[in-house]
Specification:
Structural class: alpha/beta
Strand order of the largest sheet: 15-14-13-12-11-18-17-16
Number of strands: 18
Shape: globular
CATH class of the largest domain: Alpha Beta
Largest sheet: 8 strands, parallel
Length: about 550
């Protein structure tokens, strides 16, 4: 039973006596009967999301005698995305859900219950139930710098769908049409891209949000500006998008001109704008969602701005919060208890993990698990609808953190950080690259959630333990050269500059140990001009610790 419990560890409830149904055939047939909505068909719910060499799912047009039956039923008492799944001795599978996404998650258990035997196929008699910890689970493309390519976004949507997440928010700071040129309508070429994203999101059962940031220069008192904003949003509505965000972050919210005369505070002006946008969407769409990022989005304390904003804006619209800092090293239970009282409305945590757009963080890769977030964030009393991660510009490598985050969002109470991280690394690349990947990620931690240098590395620097540091850099070089063999273009595109930097660091270190002043300066110039930097950066940390510069770098040759 221990092995079975481990096999079904992703589900909150798992009940079985270990009994099986046996079939003397290598592949069984399961007939689908849809009862979730009238005329629900096999094609409506499965598409290409599920296949197995051990069973075949068929619709009501199947003319043979099926081995088992499966019915999908609606249960209004279940929360969105949750499900109840049972296999009876009568060879019938029942899946109950509140929405179709819940059915997708439930159906993922089918390959787990059906096993190959020595003389056929067996199906476990079992009951499963699960309710995701958070209603909103996903990513927000909200970083500064070059936005993702369309191919990245399409991959994001497929990835989210395959990892039990349900939300993608489009908010790249450097989309000029979203922020600086928010008044300018998107050209047809861009609208085509949004339509493609919206259709892909629908297919993957992902809620697609479009965010807009007019706060830098909108005139809250002018109906003309309001009409321009509505026209912009209408473009996206017509492209098939029904979820929106109003971003008022990173702006100067001092009132000026007519706005200062009309409103007593920025919070009142922002609430007025939010109400206008909400009213427009309500008139355009029967079903829609709106989320707002306030200007004060990273507070760890109360403020007049948040009090007025929450009181004056429409009830039910959630506000973003990044945690007690823009780049929060932790979000504790005390943190969320305080901010839940202050916000006094639904909240979505905009978690700036593993984003690397702050100051010179773009030189770094943040390759750590999702950590230092209270497992109690999902408790209903805190009214946290969900969490969205703001990833790195390097989407492919962001998957390492996002994968562990998806497991936290799915079931925060049973999230085991070390176990999740080890499984994520093991599944990310073929097994012969695992050790190299583990070593490389260890040298590139997220500096906001964990110490950059290990205790042993700090000791080696302080003790001038040259052999230890040399061995560390040589091990990293070996791992990097192994990772350079990975046959994945997206992976190589993301990691390539940092693999090159590993080579440069070892050359720099060798020159420090044994080179002339000219060789040292030359190697130092190369690393200083690099746009990629290893997180631990051992040679530079050594130089910094001993306060050694230029001609006197690191080792006095006459010691």
């Amino acid at each position: 039973m221990g092995k079975l419990a481990q096999k079904f560890s992703a589900y909150q409830e798992f009940y079985t006596k270990g009994e099986y149904l046996f079939f003397q055939k290598t592949k069984i047939t399961i007939l689908f009967s849809g009862k979730f909505f009238r005329f629900e068909s096999f094609q409506d719910v499965f598409n290409e999301h599920l296949s197995s060499p051990l069973f075949e799912l068929v619709g009501t047009d199947y003319l043979g005698q099926p081995d088992m039956t499966l019915s999908h039923e609606f249960d209004r008492n279940l929360k969105p995305d949750s499900f109840y799944f049972t296999v009876s001795k009568k060879k019938h599978i029942t899946i109950k859900t509140n929405n179709l996404r819940g059915f997708r998650y439930a159906s993922e258990a089918l390959p787990l219950i059906i096993e190959k035997t020595t003389n056929g196929t067996a199906c476990l008699i079992v009951s499963l139930a699960h309710e995701p910890s958070f209603q909103v689970r996903g990513v927000i493309e909200g970083f500064y710098g070059t936005p993702w390519k369309q191919s990245d976004r399409l991959d994001v949507l497929h990835y989210l769908g395959n990892n039990r997440m349900n939300t993608y928010m489009y908010a790249p700071k450097d989309d000029q049409y979203l922020r600086k040129l928010w008044r300018t309508l998107y050209p047809d070429s861009e609208l085509i891209k949004f339509e493609q994203l919206a259709k892909t999101a629908e297919k993957e059962m992902i809620d697609f949000y479009y965010m807009i940031s007019p706060g830098n220069d909108i005139d809250y008192t002018q109906i003309k500006d309001s009409n321009v904003l509505n026209a912009k949003l209408k473009q996206l509505v017509d492209s098939g998008i029904r979820h929106f965000g109003l971003l008022l972050d990173d702006i100067d919210y001092s009132l000026k001109g007519n706005a200062k005369k009309k409103f007593s505070s920025a919070a009142s002006a922002h609430a007025y704008l939010i109400t206008q946008v909400d009213t427009f969407l309500k008139n355009e769409l029967e079903d829609y969602r709106l989320v707002v990022c306030p200007t004060e989005y990273d507070n760890s304390y109360d403020s007049a701005y948040l009090e007025i904003l929450s009181k004056k804006m429409p009830i039910g619209i959630p506000l973003f919060w990044t945690g007690p800092a823009t780049l929060a090293s932790q979000i504790t239970t005390d943190d969320i208890e305080k901010m839940a009282r202050i916000y006094n409305r639904p909240m979505i945590i905009w978690d700036n993990i593993p984003v690397n757009d702050y100051q010179k963080d773009y030189e770094l890769l943040f390759l750590s698990p999702y950590e230092n977030r209270s497992p109690l964030l999902s408790q209903s009393k805190y009214n946290v609808l969900g969490i969205v991660s703001n990833p790195m510009a390097q989407w492919e490598l962001s998957k390492l953190t996002i994968q562990t985050m998806s497991q936290f969002l799915w079931d925060s109470s049973s999230y085991k950080l070390t176990d999740s991280w080890n499984k994520t690394l093991a599944a990310y690349l073929p097994s012969d690259y695992l050790n190299a990947l583990k070593l490389f990620t260890a040298f590139n931690p997220n500096k906001y959630t964990r110490a950059v240098l290990t205790f042993e590395q700090k000791q080696a620097i302080g003790n001038k333990d040259i052999p230890f540091i040399t061995a560390q850099l040589e091990q990293l070089l070996k791992a990097s050269r192994k990772l350079a063999e990975v046959k994945n273009d997206d992976f190589q595109s993301n990691i390539g500059p940092w693999l090159k930097r590993v080579e440069q660091d070892l050359t720099y270190w060798d020159s420090i140990k044994e080179g002339t002043k000219e060789e040292i300066k030359k190697a130092q110039l190369v690393v200083n001009n690099s746009q990629a930097r290893i997180g631990t950066d051992l040679p530079a940390e050594f130089v910094k610790y001993w306060n050694l510069i230029d001609e006197t770098i690191v080792l006095e040759k006459n010691e």
